[in-house]
């Protein structure tokens, strides 16, 4: 009994330590965003007179709302698009597998193993010829393609955990495959679909390589907004922190609000 | 009658469409994030007010990201940018590749002769000017005069590296958070290699001989890199191999660094009380010399150029001439203060009494810029131009590769001799593969 309570205490301490270590950079960034540039580079201190000057300057210099709108449009748009393709694909592979299904799944995942820079030039040229450079729609297409393998894999895993008996009962009652998908499977797998969608939104929101290479101003999301405050020559740490906090704030709120759904989705089917 | 009114209305529509198209000439400017560019972005509203037919669209990126972005854009002919911010390294190479529009027919009041000759030369290729300088810099020695006084030292106007070493050793007091010297340690062709190249130059060394054979394991390189690492390891701050301009500026501005050798463009910030805690104790001298003054201080300029792929060349040139003009410098002086004007480009700036009063470092900066000669970076003959870089496309990769190895030696992973032997071999291989010597 004593041992179990000791273990619980140690696990709690460990959990809090890890959580604080993960949270500390975000806390420090938030703190730095309220300092002057001199304070930001001076000896680290928790005592200072907070200022909103950095936020004012960031708002004055950049069109934050345009960048934020592009991020929302691209992240949610690409997630919806990826789910629209991935749900039928995962349904088909989970419940009507062929002998090539395992190979197909592995092949899809293997596309994630190639460094994106390897295909930068061909994609850049395609985008140029299709008039998609510096457009949010172009970026949405790329993010859909980028996240599709992971989304299919996750959904495939979730769908496999849905009891087949329920679907079979539906078939006995005469449901068509489309009805089975929309009226039985999707409602049963909602937590899994939600957590997959949320992961896809987060991955798209934080993606920087494609956004920096394919967009410049009209279609640029918040990652490009942050990049515009980074400089190897010149002190912009406080402004960079303010811009970073403004960039992560929306996704932080979304993550916070949906953490219950996310946790239940990630543990979906773990215990039968 | 009906046909007539149809023709009239069609003509009116065409005319108004043409007018709208003209009104909507958008100039997309790709630029770097630094203090001078931010001021330009802020004041550009005045340019738009004076030129209602031109809209400016800003793309601000970190310089390495911008460089990669611009190179991809121009090399693939995508035409995303109408004005690009590039440096003295890129301009001659891109001009030679026919990627940039040669700048001819500049307005008479632009006064091109007022632009410093060394800067104009750095932005030209085969006698043609391809970019207009927005600001320019060399390198110099900054020191904390109160720390030097406390140690009973004084800095000569032209120090030697031996003197710098002695002073750094006497100021160094890590127990009290004061370090003798701060030098760039972060690897990169524009980071640690900018300083290391000037040290090699002043020790009499060179990157390549006349036949493009690398000389990275020569005695001059051994001496220069040996001293660089000794200074950093003995008298530098901890973790020096990850310190770049910003980190060293932060250390110096907060009084933790005795001597800092870096870009002249740092001077304005160091004298600015809102950015620096040592504004009253900043001293400056020329960059140190060893055996020769050839190439002991660098030359760099951020300049504006028009890619050949731009579809708004006339509007782009109009903006560039505005942003690099004498009247723009006057405008910055009036609105932001004279210490904040873009330095290093025009003789008239250095003749202006208001600037001289606001920037005590101005004569030393002018001297550094005027005496930097990219055509003679070494006392030995060289086949390239560039003081702190070698003006060939392969240099970005070579410089960064050498910079990483030297940073490794600084972090104690290998000796100077091992590091230089290794880079001599890898650079020789790279040059051979790139087809040097070119026939």
Q: What topology emerges from the helices and strands here?
A:
The complex is a heterodimer of chains A (272) and B (439).
Chain A: H1 2-32, H2 37-41, H3 53-61, H4 64-95, H5 101-110, H6 120-130, H7 136-160, H8 164-172, H9 177-188, H10 190-206, H11 209-214, H12 222-227, H13 237-257, H14 259-266
Helix pairs in contact in A: 1-13, 3-13, 4-7, 4-10, 7-10, 8-9, 10-14
Chain B: H1 2-23, E1 25-32, H2 35-50, E2 54-61, H3 63-75, E3 83-87, H4 90-96, H5 117-122, E4 124-125, E5 128-129, E6 132-144, H6 145-150, H7 161-171, E7 179-182, H8 192-202, H9 219-235, H10 245-253, E8 257-263, H11 267-271, E9 282-286, E10 299-305, H12 313-323, H13 326-336, H14 347-351, H15 353-358, H16 362-371, H17 395-410, H18 416-433
Parallel strand pairs in B: 1-2, 1-3, 7-8
Antiparallel strand pairs in B: 3-10, 4-5, 6-8, 6-9, 6-10
Helix pairs in contact in B: 8-9, 17-18
Radius of gyration of chain B: 24 Å
Average of pLDDT of chain A? 89
Gyration radius of chain A (Cα, Å) is: 23 Å
Work out the largest interface and the residue count of each chain.
A-B, 31 and 42 residues
CATH superfamily caption of chain A: MetI-like
Ranges of chain A where pLDDT stays below 50 over 5 or more residues in a row are none
What is the number of strand segments of chain B? 10
Number of structurally distinct domains of chain B: 2
The CATH superfamily of the largest domain in chain B bears the name Periplasmic binding protein-like II
Q: Main sheet of chain B, how many strands, which sense, barrel?
A: 8 strands, mixed
The main sheet of chain A comes to: none
| Helical content band of chain A | over 70%
């Amino acid at each position: 009994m004593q041992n179990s309570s000791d273990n619980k205490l140690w696990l709690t301490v460990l959990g809090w330590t890890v959580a604080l270590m993960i949270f500390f950079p975000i806390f420090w960034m938030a703190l730095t965003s309220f300092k002057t540039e001199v304070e930001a580079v001076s000896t680290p201190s928790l005592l200072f007179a907070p200022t909103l000057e950095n936020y004012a300057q960031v708002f004055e210099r950049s069109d934050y709302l345009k960048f934020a709108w592009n991020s929302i449009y691209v992240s949610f748009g690409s997630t919806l698009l990826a789910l629209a393709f991935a749900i039928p694909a995962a349904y088909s592979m989970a419940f009507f597998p062929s002998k090539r299904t395992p190979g197909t799944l592995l092949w899809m995942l293997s596309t994630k193993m190639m460094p994106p820079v390897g295909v930068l030039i061909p994609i850049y040229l395609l985008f140029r010829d299709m008039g998609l450079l510096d457009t949010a729609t172009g970026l949405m297409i790329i993010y859909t393609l980028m996240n599709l393998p992971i989304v299919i894999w996750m959904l495939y895993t979730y769908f496999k955990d849905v009891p087949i008996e329920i679907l079979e009962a539906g078939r006995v009652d005469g449901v068509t495959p489309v009805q089975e998908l929309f009226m039985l499977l999707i409602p049963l797998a909602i937590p899994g679909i939600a957590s997959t969608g949320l992961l896809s939104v987060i991955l798209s929101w934080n993606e920087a390589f494609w956004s920096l290479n394919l967009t410049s101003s009209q279609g640029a999301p918040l990652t490009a907004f942050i990049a515009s405050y980074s400089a190897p020559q010149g002190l912009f740490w406080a402004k960079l922190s303010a811009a970073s906090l403004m960039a992560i704030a929306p996704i932080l709120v979304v993550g916070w609000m949906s953490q219950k759904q996310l946790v239940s989705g990630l543990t979906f089917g773990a215990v039968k | 009658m009906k046909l007539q009114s149809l023709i009239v209305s069609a003509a009116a529509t065409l005319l108004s469409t043409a007018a709208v198209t003209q009104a909507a000439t958008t100039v997309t400017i790709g630029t770097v994030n630094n203090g001078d560019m931010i001021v330009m972005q802020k004041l550009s509203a005045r340019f738009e007010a004076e030129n209602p037919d031109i809209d400016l669209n800003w793309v601000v990126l970190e310089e390495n990201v911008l460089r990669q972005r611009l190179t991809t854009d121009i090399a693939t002919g995508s035409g995303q940018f109408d004005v690009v911010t590039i440096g003295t390294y890129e301009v001659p190479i891109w001009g030679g590749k026919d990627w940039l529009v040669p700048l001819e027919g500049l307005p008479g009041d632009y006064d091109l002769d007022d632009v410093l000759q060394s800067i104009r030369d750095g932005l030209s290729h085969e006698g043609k000017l391809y970019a207009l300088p927005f600001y320019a810099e060399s390198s110099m020695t900054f020191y904390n005069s109160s720390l030097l006084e406390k140690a009973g030292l004084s800095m000569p106007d032209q120090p030697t590296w031996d003197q710098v070493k002695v002073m750094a050793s006497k100021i160094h007091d890590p127990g009290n958070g004061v370090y003798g010297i701060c030098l760039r340690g972060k690897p990169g062709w524009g980071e640690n290699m900018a300083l290391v190249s000037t040290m090699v130059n002043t020790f009499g060394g060179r990157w390549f001989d006349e036949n493009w054979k690398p000389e990275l394991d020569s005695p001059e390189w051994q001496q220069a890199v040996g001293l660089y690492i000794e200074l950093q390891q003995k008298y530098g701050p901890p973790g020096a191999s990850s310190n770049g301009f910003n980190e060293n500026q932060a250390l110096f501005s907060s009084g933790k660094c005795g001597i800092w050798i870096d870009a002249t463009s740092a001077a304005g910030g160091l004298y600015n009380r809102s950015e620096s805690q040592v504004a009253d104790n900043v001293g400056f001298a020329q960059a140190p010399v060893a055996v020769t003054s050839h190439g002991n201080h660098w030359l760099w300029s951020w300049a504006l150029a028009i890619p050949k792929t731009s579809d708004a060349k006339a509007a782009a040139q109009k903006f560039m001439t505005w942003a690099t003009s004498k009247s723009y410098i006057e405008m910055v002086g009036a609105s932001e203060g004279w210490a904040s004007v873009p330095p290093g480009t025009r003789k008239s700036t250095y003749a202006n009494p208001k600037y001289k009063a606001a920037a005590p470092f101005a004569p030393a900066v002018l001297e550094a810029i005027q005496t930097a000669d990219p055509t003679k970076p070494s006392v030995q003959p060289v086949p390239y131009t560039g003081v702190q870089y070698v003006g060939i496309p392969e240099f970005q990769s070579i410089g960064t590769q050498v910079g990483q190895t030297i940073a490794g030696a600084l972090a104690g992973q290998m000796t100077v001799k091992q590091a230089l032997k290794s880079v001599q071999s890898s650079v020789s291989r790279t040059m051979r593969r790139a087809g040097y010597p070119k026939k």
